[in-house]
Amino acid sequence: MKYIALHRVSTYSSSGYKNYKIIQNLKFDTLIELFDDPFTVSESSKNFFSIKNFVDNTSCFQYKIEDIITKRGRQKHLKIFREKISEKINLAVSNEIFFITSPLILDVLPKKTLMKNKFVLIKHACSDLYLKSNNNLDPYIKKKHDKYIDYILVNTVQEKKIFSSLLNITPEKVFVSEEVAESLPANYNYKKIGNDGVLYSGVLNDAKSILSVLQTATQLPDIKFTFMGTGKLQKEIMSYSAKYPNVIFKPLPKLKNLMTEIAKNKLTVVVNTERKITPDSFIAKQSLMLGIPIISINNFELSTKYIGTNNERGILLENKDNLVNELVKNIKLLLVENQELYMTKRTKCFEYAKSHFDPLKFSDNLQKLEAILKE
Predict the structure, then answer these.
(1) DSSP secondary-structure letter at 333?
(2) How are beta strands 118-122 and 97-100 bridged, if at all?
(3) Which CATH class is domain 198-356?
(4) What is the pLDDT of residues 335-373, one digit of tens each?
């Protein structure tokens, strides 16, 4: 039995990151990565997002397929991708295990391949990416899951209940893998505070939130603000950096250096205003693992989950219409006015992450899944 991973690379994706950790923990024979997101095809992004950089003894192949999800180009590009995959793996194989991170991958594989092998879907960061309103599943995805998906990896017990019900899959085939963060840097002590100030990291596209954080930086000149990522507002951030010494832009670090970079900061800001779900949960988890409190808008389920309903591990901003004032007030509260409160939140962050994102616990759960797959 062999493990084959078909990975649709996406920016700062919790599902993509989970795939990194699965690849690290299970021995895969073949990994095929699809780059179809404009923010993952640059060389700097590939250094971060590609699993290829973090695995040994695995055959890795990478393809850039543009516009794969557009109606006009969909069938053409899927055909091309299917042909390229068939050059690297024998699509007539049977009794193998395919790990996939997107239902789109099912369109790439021939029906015979789908019927003769087992498929494990690594669910994306939020159920909203699969579910429509009122817990109704997209009919296309439901059809695919009903026919071809043998197991689903989800984050929580609640998700397990939802997916096993909606997909008509027995609960035993919906596996809770738990969430995971990177291991801490060697000799890390969360009580030792970083020298920098505020970190905003992720896909640098949300104009309202990023400009709000930049304006906040201009009002707090004694606090360093670091923007780390890639996206269409990168030039705007760099123009602010030229005018304001406390505004710093950094490109994406390699994943092995990510925790060290985050640890240099005292706070992480997650204030995406354009999406109903936060795509920045990946950075939030790493921050919590380091004991770094989070400031976020109180309209994301994940923000509430990570920070706590009583602001135990950061601060949830209630008034996003007055975002700059809210950010200024609460950053000053934690970094200038109330050091004791800040240290209390650091402790709460570290304790929460240790019990929820432990890499060792995640590895143990994967070993249990592997035992099931081999039965």
Answers:
(1) I
(2) parallel
(3) alpha beta
(4) 999 999 999 999 999 999 988 888 888 888 788 888 888
